[in-house]
Write a structure and sequence with these properties.
- The protein is an all-alpha fold.
- It contains eight helices and no strands.
- Helix 3 (40-57) runs parallel beside helix 5 (98-110) and helix 5 runs parallel beside helix 7 (135-147).
Length: 174
């Protein structure tokens, strides 16, 4: 698991768009039965790298500049859903450093992958550990919630206390 994470992280860090490599690594992780051997750092790095890769691949898509590769997009969705289900199902939020919690939230927002249960649990874990968050992690977390339309932005500006994040989060019915 650490090797997968390292490869994802390294390629994304230097912006090398190696679609065949990312595809094979994502397919391998998708085919795994469980993700129990992946620690919180690995999961955070993989989601961040795949979200960054997603942004690079689909940059300009809204403007019609790139043809959509639906198979690759579907692969991203499946991987992100599998990781979210693992994190939520195993309830391992206490194993994540706060910067990794915010990295997970930002990755899902960057990749435009909605998982309401994950964001609900991220909000709860963040509120419980609010004193541990660095300002940058708070900003990333709140930005991710805002981009996923889970924060009432006007209320956020009126009451800028991170510990009150649960007051701003709106969850769709499951």
């Amino acid at each position: 698991p650490q090797s997968f994470s390292n490869v994802f992280w390294a390629y994304a860090t230097v912006d090398i768009p190696h679609l065949p490599l990312f595809s094979r690594l994502m397919d391998h992780i998708i085919k795994l039965g469980k993700l129990d051997k992946f620690n919180s750092i690995c999961l955070a790095n993989i989601t961040w790298a795949c979200a960054k890769k997603y942004e690079i691949m689909y940059e300009g898509l809204e403007e019609g500049g790139v043809q959509e590769d639906t198979k690759q997009k579907q692969r991203h969705r499946i991987l992100f859903q599998k990781i979210a289900q693992h994190i939520v199902g195993a309830n391992i939020f206490d194993q994540f450093e706060t910067q990794h919690l915010s990295r997970i939230a930002a990755a899902y927002a960057d990749a435009r992958i909605k998982h309401p249960r994950l964001f609900q649990k991220l909000a709860l874990a963040s509120a419980q550990r609010r004193d541990e968050f660095a300002p940058q992690s708070i900003a990333f977390m709140l930005n991710a919630f805002a981009r996923m339309n889970l924060i009432k932005v006007n209320a956020l500006y009126q009451r800028a206390k991170f510990g009150k994040i649960l007051n701003f989060v709106e969850y769709p019915a499951e």
